[in-house]
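Usage

Read records sequentially. Each one opens with the input sequence:
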Amino acid sequence: MKLYKKILLGTGISLVTLALIAGGTVYGMWFNEINSLCTIKKLNDANDDVKAGPVYEISMSGDYYFDKFLEQGGASSDQDLINFLVDNLTKGVIDIDLNAPSIGCSSFTFQDENGDRYFARNYDFSTTTSMIVKTNPGNGRHASISSADLQFLGIEGELDSFMKNALSLVAPYVPLDGVNDAGVSCGIYMSYQTNTQDDGTVEVESTNQNTDKPDLTSTTMLRMILDYADSVDEAVELVSQYDFHDSANTSFHYMVADSTGKSAILEWVNNVADHDDGTQRELKVYYNDADSNVGEREGQQDFQYITNFLVTPDYYQNDDQKAGFDRYNYISETIDPNLTNSDGLFSYQEGLDLLQDLGRRTWDPLHGVSDSNSITVWSSLYNLTDKTVTWVSNEQFDNEEAIFTYSL
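and closes with the structure output:
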């Protein structure tokens, strides 16, 4: 009997030991991922009355393997990126599917009466789940705060399962706008570049450069800027070192700004007569203080603004082809109505008010606009001087519970 008890006791201790070892192994393998998952919290519930989706926050632990991602040469396609993320972030346990819905957005820069520089952004889409992503990877990379639409990861509605929460670990790889602790901010915007098929149908033509440079997809390029760029000039230099590949069969352009007041619009275009071919596009950069070729008004203004059409001169045959051209003009005329405010002097509150005016729930009824982007999912106002963020969910500018502030 004593021998039997000793065997049971020994077996029990062995099982506990194995369980502890197994648990320790899992925790060791998933250390940063588990710590990141523990930080996920809901900031705002969905609100069916205003068709608003829920808002979440995550603080990423560790470096989320982005150094490793760049060291391997980045990714030239969504599938290459997915393979990397599955192997590293989800350890082969969870599959990923990247999607990019048709979105419409607006951004602008300005400076307030104290000289603080700002980058403002509206993200227009439809009801979706959004996440504010905080990162601090260290090792010479910048801390940042960015915004992600989790529908890009195939997540809809609440984070009500382990699988959805685990997929959120990929959020640092799909930012749509953000700011880093060097005062560099960036946003990504659909450019709707198309080609016409032999049968007359019009399809979006993605940029798909193919030289001997390493590769980046749309949102990973924005992540690189947030993690590594100290200035607009450095962001442009970094971007120029990579072949650019639009994600999910769509096309994008960017605006980047820094705390000195410098900003730039980045576009990938080629010869206008042959702009259908996405493999032949080249990076074009239009700086806020040297963009007279974009337009006479732009040349007189040192602040900058962007919506969903390419500002590249002579790209379009007429203004009707320019998506968001009405919002583009409204931004310029609101900040500088009489061409007497070329420096873009504008208060913090005026910046929020302009974002609200451009919000699709406000804009569409007033201007007779109707398309799939019927909602502004978030409005983010980044102070590039003191590195603070005001983030407003779903145009709820009068609801304190839907406004979130951060500081780097």
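Summary fields computed downstream for this record:
- Residues 2-29 form the longest helix (28 residues).
- The first strand starts at residue 41 and ends at 44.
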